[in-house]
Amino acid sequence: MSCSLLEFCRLQELKTVRDYLFQSQKSEPAGEKTQTENELSWDSAEWESAWDGGDNKEEEATSAPTVEEETTGQSEPWLQDCVVSLSPCSDLLVVAREQKAVFLSAKWRSDDSGREEMTLAVTWTGVLSTDEGECVNSSICIPLASQKRSSTGRPDWTCVVVGFSSGYVRFYTENGVLLLAQLLHEDPVLRLKCRTYEIPRHPGVTEQHEELSILYPAALVTIDGFSLFQSLRACRNQVARAAAAGSDVIQPPPLAYKKWGLQDMDTIVDHSSVGIMTLCVFDQMKNASILGGFNASVKGSPPAMSQYITVGGGPYTGFYYAVEGSSQPLLSHVALAVASKLTSALFSAASGWLGWNKNKNEEEAVQKQKPKVEAATPLGIRFGLPDSRRHGESICLSPCNTLAGVTDDFGRVTLLDLARGIAIRMWKGYRDAQLGWLQVPEERGDREFSPSASLPRRHALFLVIYAPRRGILEVWAMQHGPRVGAFTVGKHCRLLYAGYRLMGVNSVTSQGWQLHTQQVCLLDPITGALRTVNIPFHLALSDKKSERAKDMHLLKRLTTILRSREVEPDILEQEAKSVLLDIKHPAIKKQALHSLLSNKNAPVSCLTNVTSALYDALKQQDPDEVDTPLLELCSSQLKLLQLYTDIQNLHSAADIEPSSTNQDSLDGIEEELSRVGPTLQRYAQLTSRPSVSFAQDSPDSHLPAQAFLSQMECTESGELKVIRTSETEWNHLGNFMFWGCLCGKSPVHKVCDTLQQAGISPQQLLSLLLSVWLQREKEMLQKPEETVKNLHTLLIALSNMKGAVEESWDTQSISPWWQQVRCTCIQSHNAAAALLAAFVAHCATKASITSRADSKLQSEWEAVSLELEQWVVCVRQLEDVLVLQTLLLMPPPQGAAGGAAAQCSIKTLLEGGTGGIADSVSKWVFRHNLAPERLKEILQKKEDKDADDKLEQTAGEEQKEQEEESQEDADRTAELLVAVCQRFPHSLSPDLLFAHCCWEYVVQWNKDPEEGRYLFWAVEHLKLVSSPHIQLGISTMMWSTFIVKRLSAAAFLMEKVGKSPKDRLCRRDVGMGDKAVTSFLGCCVQLLQILMEADSAVEEVPAPELSVEEVWFGADGPASIAELALDQRGVHYPPGATPLPGKNAFFGDLTSIQLMPSGDMDPGLVSLRQEFLLRVLTGWVQAIELSALLQVNPDILKRHLVCELYNQGLDFRAEEVMLEVEDKDVLGSQLLVLTGQRLSYSLLHSQSQTQAAMELLARLPPTLCTWLKAMDPSELRCPLVPLSQTSRLVSRLIEILPENHAQYSLALHLLEAVEALTTED
């Protein structure tokens, strides 16, 4: 492990940033960019170009930039002219120049490979300056901590602090919203720096307060971090509220700050606020003696002082100390202003008394406009590092506040010891250098082996120096350590070092936080990459005597050798052995051994020899000095490598054991195989279709030793434990162990003995064996007899292992060993392999129980029945699943819906509930596009064996005649479906299957409403359901779930449009095209018709009883569609008609009674019905009046009215109207027929016929009997009329009919019959 540069972020739209900031100079020649700033700039540019070796020659051009220069504009050193600041959380970057600024915020995006990466994209651009002529001089981004209790260390938001040449300091949000602006001093802001809370690493270290410091040419302003944090939060909340309310922002109160007037230094360009420090007693007495002389008094306790370091000129570095608690002098603002002007006039070498007096009025006018500025407290320099020719350029404070790096105009980097105030180290040849610090904690793994493990974690300090003239980034260990890293980077990069973290953190809120901050970042403006420096802690120890550094070097060397694929195995073994024996540190030695054992290029012999050599070397050492975990690791890995080699040799050996399987025990299996043989053969044909797979996932691929080692683990007791990581790796391991035995190519008992001696539990071996058997179903079905025999041998061998079947197994309970086999078969989707495994296990269980009973000289009948009953049920279920899975694997015909074939197992079918089987078959019916009539025809084959034979003969004749493959497939599909229905007579009864098919089709139609055929077939399936109860429930559920919303939308749309709506409106409102709407409405009519007929037939037929097969009683899942249908409530027909409440009632819930909230009918609806009936009566009266005008005899209408009233059973009202009829003879003939219909219904068609009525019928004259039988009582609307009313009607007939009438005698016979009936009642 060595130093590395890691890219963690990338800037987007860099050209956009550059073009925006340099808009005013696009048309200017490159050489004139700095002409106005300094008249002698040509001399400097020539010297710099000579220094850079000609890299900047293009800047001397005076012509406009060419197209080539514009395209390569990113490579120009434009970033050096900008103010750049990066948040320590790396989520906000500010680039500013003159008046403009660009804010870039973090965004996550996926690269080409799908990996998430962080980018910085432009989120705000704008002009920050508000006063004329002011420019941005400095900026920093301060992340503010969240105050929420659930926070884990991410910032709540980031504040951008900008210092201007006018003296203003302004605070902005990430979106460029101004929060606060304050004029702290009337000179340009030189530098902004921040100090945040750091958790003290050692007890006794002074806790530093948070602070923002602002440097002016002769003053230093400090703002307390806590008050600044609260003010910024308040300003942000107030701005947000004002923006939400649309009101003006209230001007916030000014910030509280301290201002120090830095004296006794000619020029100041940079500073560092070290924080509060306390002198020791000796230093306190020394300073008192130097400052106060011999008679100076010394206080009892040393005062706390804030230390400030400045760099510039005269002296080169200055040390200032401000005693905490000192107050500013009580001078008035005017007096202080005059004094400051007088001081500046006396010490200014460029201006004189006349010049100052000349501009006095202008300055006063400016001062009147600017806000009041507090005076600075004079602070004298304590001491400095005088160097008259050297001028400091920047200072960078270390994270521990004890060291600082200073750059100067001589190209030197000086390291200062701040506590002693001296320079302790200097580097030369670093002109325009940029500095940063890295503090690296000790790794926890290394700390465990350190002699000072109980002490706090150590931290290593590194100084990062970027030399842009040479394009190199260097890392130096402190304080006098060597250079531990060097990287060649671009010459135009910027080294970004914040030196602070989150503001608003204290010792309480920071507990448990993981602060995600970058200490040093390198920004490359050409590629836009942001990179951070990664330094391992051990590099701080990298001297000539460091064993760890040497060990790390050896580990790196071994890693390089292992990555190379061209190394010979002998050389690899020799090098690996040498490196492992040379490494001293146990942790690194263990890491190297893991790297070797996980390498795929190393052969097994190499791994064994190297590990054995290391084990021998450790054994020869003193037992007290040997690292026990490393020794145990070598021992366990050697054991695993030996096991791997033994199994490999057994599989490659040619000697095969003779079969020792008892033939008697296999007879039962062979019978079962012959019974299910045709189904297995068809299943094998369907599963052997070609499919795509990757070579590395193939079960035939070789298992490398590294994969074997990664899945095995040695326990403390010396046994081996198999680690189940993924299903693929588990299957590969099982293939390696058992596939040779299953194929008959390896000695079964030798392999089992080897695995047992290794200490692997029989339960894990059984799981591996079953996974191989189930996974390699296709190969197994090619030779089922042979593979089943080998499986039987393996299963018996594993069962005889110690710890497999418990010796104390209670015969009254189920064996956990065989239960494991059953659970695996129950969960498997490979139906054929699971069934064959169940056959073998059933046979082995029977043999095991028999042998136990013989050994005990008794017959355990209960144990036999209990254990074997479980296997009988399991085998029956697996046979059912096999037939069902064979059906589901049938490929759909061309043009069908298609889709992947469903996979089923006992577990999935049980979890699917009582309707799980029917649901699977209904999905298969949909995939195969099987028409409802065709499905009905197939199901009738199952019910009628004779018809089945005839259909098969007919199909065979057609096959011989036409020889079409499609017909063969159809017959084979029908045969499979019939077989499935025969195995599931209850779960796949016709009603249940039709109900599930109906539901499946309507669900598919709901997914794609344009396919009207799906809804049509759903209704057709519903028609085929024979039970009205299930029909009614399915109809109700279809209506409420899928139909009513679309139908109501279509109805309201047609009412709104007033005609057939266009396709666009149908798609918008109903969700389907106009043609699909037409088909949909037709299906709705059929559905409502089915619903009405089913509702009327429900009372006549009892509800069906749903049941399942005996072996499938354990279903525990959702209710079937048929069960849900039977649970539906009865239908209440909504009141018909046209008003709006009627529409709402029609589209409401069918099971609800549409009443008003009070429980009464809607009075509006009642009034409309009343109006309708009144109009009917009015129409009848008008018809009577119109009869004369239309030359229609009114007497005919009156006779019709009398007959209609008698037909309705309203005899008394009919007698009233009869008085108005004139032609009584015709009326009598009409009423005679009506009377005969009533009597015919009572004697011949009524369900409650009595014996007396039958005797009366026998006594009647033959002519009357013949006449009554010819009557049709179905024309009566009310046939159940009391006999008294019918007797009264016959009496009226005799009165109105003359005696000479042709039917008078018939009326007399009727009177006698009615009187006889009345007397008997």
From TrEMBL:
Its main location: cytoplasm. Residues 25-75, 939-969 are annotated as: Disordered. GO terms for cellular component: cytoplasm. Pfam families: RAB3GAP2_C, RAB3GAP2_N. Residues 939-952 have a biased composition (Basic and acidic residues). This is Rab3 GTPase-activating protein non-catalytic subunit RGAP-iso. GO terms for molecular function: GTPase activator activity. PANTHER family: RAB3 GTPASE-ACTIVATING PROTEIN NON-CATALYTIC SUBUNIT, RAB3-GAP REGULATORY DOMAIN. It is found in: Cytoplasm. It comes from the Eukaryota. The keyword S-adenosyl-L-methionine does not apply. Residues 78-496 form the Rab3-GAP regulatory subunit N-terminal domain. Belongs to the Rab3-GAP regulatory subunit family. Residues 764-1134, 1142-1298 form the Rab3GAP regulatory subunit C-terminal domain. InterPro entries: Rab3GAP2, RAB3GAP2_C, RAB3GAP_N. Keywords: Cytoplasm, GTPase activation. It comes from Collichthys lucidus (Big head croaker). The keyword Cytoplasm applies.
